[in-house]
Amino acid sequence: MRARERQGAAALRAVGAEPRAEYRAHQLTVADRTVPIAAPWLAIDHDAADELDDRVYRGLVDALGVRLRYSDRALHAVGEPHDLVARIVFDILEQVRCEAQVPDSLDGVRDNIEHAFRAWCARQNITDSALGLLLYTVMHMARSRMVHPLQNEFIEDTIESTRANISPVIGTGLRHLKANTDDQIEYAYHARGVAEAIAEMVDEQGGGEMVAGAEKVATQLFIPPDWTEDPPEGDGEMPGAGSDLDRVDERSLDEVGGYHVFTREHDVEHMGASLYPEAKRRELREHLDEEIAAQAVSVFTLARRFQRLLTGLERDGWSHGQEEGVLDAARLSQIVANPAQRQIFQRERYRITCPAVVSFLIDNSGSMKRQRHETVTVLVDTLARALDLAGATSEILGFTTNAWNGGEPLREWRRAMEPDDPGRLAELSHIVYKDADTPWKRSRLSTASMMRTQHFREGVDGEAIAWAYRRLLDRPEPKKLLLIVSDGAPMEAATINANGEAFLEAHLANVVHRIERDPRVDIGAIAIDQPVDDFFSRSVDLDLTGTLTLASYRVLERLFL
Predict the structure, then answer these.
(1) Does any domain span residue 246?
(2) Do 424 and 323 belong to one domain?
(3) CA 318, 323, 327 angle in degrees (round to 5)?
(4) Which listed residue, of 290, 337, 393, 505, carries a Cα 20 to 30 Å from 521's Cα?
């Protein structure tokens, strides 16, 4: 049994991207601290643990792994309600959100989790109690909306009556959950509303018997005994979109994992328009437009696809004179004048928007000269134009160095008698070809600079990704996507010679790992010729040897849908 636990722990660490995670005696810990999870389908009966088949066991482990990967535990603790029933529902909904986040690239993980869930449904007994049946119904309603449609007639019959009773109460909240699975803060706000509504129903309808039974039900779930005590963070307000509770300290990314820099004095940030004279950029733009026209891909078709991918709802005032909704105090006098008048309510009005920003970060190292940089430019420029038409925001960034083999930092290090472990010895050059506030039409000459490679030298990927990530955090759009286009591992000769081959690669891996744990930003990569899945959990290999097709432009869907 312990051998299987060790294998499960290894899989959990890989899926969860958490090297400190451990799984022992059916308990999940991180850095020797228990991680309490109340989702009942993750419970393991100690007496029946040995009877679980390997795929069910792997599904349980994978489900715990995705919880570690996609949920910020500190943020979740801040939002926990005080009421025990509400806390259980709130935790169940967070587990559902994490399972809904599993990308297509991890379809095996997703299938394992679904298999384990169905196996639990076949053997569960929590529906024997009224509270258990209520929780069972809520979890099926949430999972069928966000993870996998419910296709079991027996379960349908079991929850039919309870679902009919609670749908008017939590139906709207569940719709908001589905729309915000990639935003833990916004999701938690609505999940807490659903959880507290369920707790209120238990209090009103079940009386003391159901409330008294809540702790018994809780101890039957996958949680430690002390989980039923008050949450350590208290019953505070759920933070909003502008919360100071940062999932990742973006300021520390440049030093994560012991990474350090000899000097930053020679680092520069350029605008793409400053790289080459205007006449040259116009010539490059003409060539770029010719290349785009040869691809035979409709930018309008792409724009419509992006609208479906990135569409959201935005509050747009109130609709008054409704027969149900929130009571409108300004219309109360109508009841006095006409007691039959029922149009005294108001409802929030929403409009469809595309509230997203996509940042393209392009590797401008010398090796990209050989890897069809012109085709990359065609791809990214077309994607940016389509996003613009879809109503989304985009920016195009590049990264390289100002000099080959270190430049001035290397010379300063040598003048300092070459101290050991100097850190990064390069002059970074970060390039803004198109900023997020500039429409595609006004940036056409600037982005054309990517067609020329005189400024392509070496690449320090980790710091470039941290720079692009910080720029995204300054944006107001709620949905933020960071897409890196790279041809492999970072390479800067002076830094590697002085610090070892793993120095830059380790920093890149650490930066990406930290950002992947931040629900505010989705990060993925396009690999050109060389795979990058050693660094990125979400990546696609793109063959740019021929004409780009519509499939080539579906990278955003493949990575982030």
Answers:
(1) no
(2) no
(3) 60
(4) 505
